[in-house]
Amino acid sequence: xxxxxxxxxxxxxxxxxxxxxxxxxxxxxxxxxxxxxxxxxxxxxxxxxxxxxxxxxxxxxxxxxxxxxxxxxxxxxxxxxxxxxxxxxxxxxxxxxxxxxxxxxxxxxxxxxxxxxxxxxxxxxxxxxxxxxxxxxxxxxxxxxxxxxxxxxxxxxxxxxxxxxxxxxxxxxxxxxxxxxxxxxxxxxxxxxxxxxxxxxxxxxxxxxxxxxxxxxxxxxxxxxxxxxxxxxxxxxxxxxxxxxxxxxxxxxxxxxxxxxxxxxxxxxxxxxxxxxxxxxxxxxxxxxxxxxxxxxxxxxxxxxxxxxxxxxxxxxxxxxxxxxxxxxxxxxxxxxxxxxxxxxxxxxxxxxxxxxxxxxxxxxxxxxxxxxxxxxxxxxxxxxxxxxxxxxxxxxxxxxxxxxxxxxxxxxxxxxxxxxxxxxxxxxxxxxxxxxxxxxxxxxxxxxxxxxxxxxxxxxxxxxxxxxxxxxxxxxxxxxxxxxxxxxxxxxxxxxxxxxxxxxxxxxxxxxxxxxxxxxxxxxxxxxxxxxxxxxxxxxxxxxxxxxxxxxxxxxxxxxxxxxxxxxxxxxxxxxxxxxxxxxxxxxxxxxxxxxxxxxxxxxxxxxxx
Length: 611
Prior knowledge:
Layout: H1 2-19, E1 25-30, E2 34-36, E3 40-48, E4 57-63, E5 68-70, E6 74-76, E7 84-86, E8 88-90, E9 97-103, E10 110-119, E11 125-135, E12 141-151, E13 158-163, E14 166-170, E15 178-184, E16 189-192, E17 196-198, E18 205-214, E19 219-221, E20 226-229, E21 233-236, H2 255-264, E22 272-276, E23 279-283, E24 287-288, E25 293-296, E26 303-307, E27 312-315, E28 322-332, E29 337-340, E30 350-360, E31 366-370, E32 374-378, E33 381-383, E34 388-392, E35 395-398, E36 401-403, E37 407-411, E38 420-424, E39 427-429, E40 433-435, E41 441-445, E42 467-468, E43 476-477, E44 537-538, E45 541-543, E46 550-554, E47 563-568, E48 573-574, E49 578-579, E50 582-584, E51 591-599, E52 602-610
Parallel strand pairs: 2-12, 21-22, 22-25, 23-26, 24-27, 25-28, 26-28, 27-29, 28-30, 29-31, 30-32, 30-33, 31-34, 32-35, 33-36, 34-37, 35-38, 36-39, 37-40, 38-41, 44-52
Antiparallel strand pairs: 1-3, 3-10, 4-9, 4-11, 5-10, 6-7, 8-9, 11-12, 13-14, 14-17, 15-16, 15-18, 18-19, 18-20, 42-43, 45-46, 46-50, 47-48, 47-51, 49-50, 51-52
């Protein structure tokens, strides 16, 4: 194990050092998604090469599938000192491999170029293309894939694209039989004789598609839809629909679809957000988060992502500004790394993970890997990783719980820039190794940690935190836990106060308002604030209300509930004594309570006034 760790740290440090030379990032690729057999198409590529010095060198590679060819090997790379370049064809490669070396010539942040390609296939197909840049040391390769569909219906329009608010397409080959076009979006449709129209998507998600109308009034629809989204937030819900507008009222259904939609309109002049409403979301393939696009859930127990693929679950390697992931759980069966959020820029963008919980439900190796970023972990939980819970080069870990991992934290230092990790008000417990030896600076305050690390700050100690097994509040502290009221005595880290007694903590925090250690203590732990719940609740028939002793409930269809719980106004779940359809409230203090129930997949909720 020690040999593995030393090797891993050496590789990580070597990677960070190399990134200081800069590395290309694909900012956008614009291309028509549908073409005729035998047609010629233009692919426009924008590669971001920020941080690269003038002596930067790179290799541009183009991989064409069988049946496609470049119409001209000479291309213009805007952003180079000598822009005209000739792509070299490597005949031994079955994928149609073309490349050109760029050395000592990059003079702009972005390199833009067009590729003209001809489809020589004879049968309809969907073909995948790949473009990549490799750094001068041949160490880092950044690549982008895209797909184009070939069609052979001469009555169908093709090459649907949008440029600067103008929707454009190509006329059908059989243009003499076409009298016009219907343009559709998710709100309306209109007829036009032109092959381009002005569109204003506004702040909503729009789906544009085009059909050609022949002289006999038959529509021939393009097998392509163009998504345009200029708003701030796309909403996704398990109960959503693929054809919805992506609003809170009409959410989308697929997280991957939301990521692809924002990626398609990826010239970001402002931050955007994907909101995951209540539900379970399954990822069978790795997905990539984009810079400046945050992923926000409705709470770790309400919004859950299940990663069922191998390799990495969610990645982001092209971060320059940063983003936030908050209020969700990610459960992994067999990922190499659940969250790989490292960057290829040395600017250390800020990545914030707040109220995020990572679980190994099978054989996941690494929980979170974040190198060359300013990582902020707030109320973060990582459980049971086979190898390492968190790998980080710098940042802060506050009110977090790192438990049952082989290695809890591996702080990785940089050869040229010393990393710094600060841990505050957290709990490291039942890991084989809490923290690996590291050359980086490490500060620990008011944290439950192995005795070996208690001297790395003030207020640290080692003890059993006395977790309670609660399905709604994982790793909830027992009221008698030594972690209760053990945080730094500062208003910044105080627990939210109870509505009934301002000196006592609001559940799920414990004790007084002096902060607890772990994920339920400290400021900022009330992730239910401003949550949009997409769960529909129905009313229960209850009587009498107000009630003094025994409450009677008439269950829908005379079916007993699958689950039932009672909470007070602070959200704390209370012990419930009931038999059949009667609930004994005799021992409860007067006040307002809420009764919840689940019956046959439907949810019910009623307010109760106890006299």
